[in-house]
Amino acid sequence: MLTVLIPWRPQPSRLAAIDAVVDWYVRNLGDVDIRTIDSDDEIFNLARCRNLGMNSIEDAGEVVVINDADTIPQLEPLLEAIAAASTSGLVHLPYTRYHWLGTAGTAQFTEGIPLDQCEFELVNGACSGVYITTPQSWWSHGGQDERFRGWGFEDAAWYVAHETLLDEAPRRHEGVVYALHHAAQAREGDQYDANAALMEQYREARSSRAAMRQLVGTDATAEKARRLPAS
């Protein structure tokens, strides 16, 4: 049975989106273990939720999907990524194009228009939404940095760490993911500025594996540190 981890803290504007995501998995894959994951952080911590979800998987070699609560993949790229992730040692992204549907496209989808016919904005450089990996691969480059809180930068930092420590970017599969509209979080304030400053440290460390290893290890939990390789 495939496990799908969905970081999730209920918000009124997000309820329809997560229902659509869960419905998509049930309709397309049938017997799926869908788990919503939250932490006890006052500010929603997406990176920590992803780490907690991976910590809940007992078999380090099991292929797991980490799926945002607003993002729907295409079936064939998802299946390709699931098959490849079991042996690659990498995290896989089941898309090459990220379509943000916005209010108009999401309304069209709600009215029954197929996702691939809905209005969208193409988000260049997107590296979030849906990850496919094993716990072993996830922890081999540090998972995600839990110091990123609220909105912003945890995905970009993770991508740089993966690229630096595993000598390859997360592996993509030709396809599209569709991000549904919901109320946006503020992209300003002290926490946002702290996230941006931490992201700059990742940019500076990207040319040095030793520097990156030190950076991703500075906020490791005991369990996360235990899973990281010694070298």
Structure description:
Helix content is 42%, strand content 16%. The chain has 231 residues and is of the alpha/beta class. A 4-stranded mixed β-sheet has the order 2-1-3-8. A 4-stranded mixed β-sheet has the order 4-10-6-7. A two-stranded parallel ribbon has the order 5-9. The longest helix has 16 residues, at 190-205. The two termini are 33 Å apart. 39% of the residues are buried. The model is unreliable at 218-223 and 225-231 (pLDDT under 50).
The string of secondary-structure elements, in order, is EHEHEEHEEHEEHHEEHHH
- Please count the beta strands (DSSP E, at least 2 residues each): 10
**Shape, please?**
globular
Helix/strand structural class: alpha/beta
Task: Estimate the strand proportion.
Answer: 15-25%
**Largest sheet features:** 4 strands, mixed
Read across the widest sheet, the strand sequence of neighbours is: 2-1-3-8
Any low-confidence stretches, pLDDT <50, length ≥5?
A: 218-223, 225-231
What is the terminal-to-terminal distance? 33 Å
C-alpha Rg, in Å?
A: 17 Å
- Give the proportion of residues in helices: 40-55%
Q: How many H/I helices?
A: 9
Average pLDDT over all residues: 91
SSE order and pairing:
Layout lengths: L1 E6 L7 H15 L2 E6 L8 H10 L8 E4 L3 E3 L1 H14 L3 E2 L3 E4 L1 H9 L10 E2 L7 E4 L1 H6 L13 H12 L5 E2 L3 E4 L10 H16 L3 H9 L4 H6 L4
Parallel strand pairs: 1-2, 1-3, 5-9, 6-10
Antiparallel strand pairs: 3-8, 4-10, 6-7
Task: List the main descriptive attributes of the protein structure presented here.
single chain; 231 residues; alpha/beta; four-stranded mixed sheet; 9 helices; 10 strands; 16% strand; globular; disordered C terminus
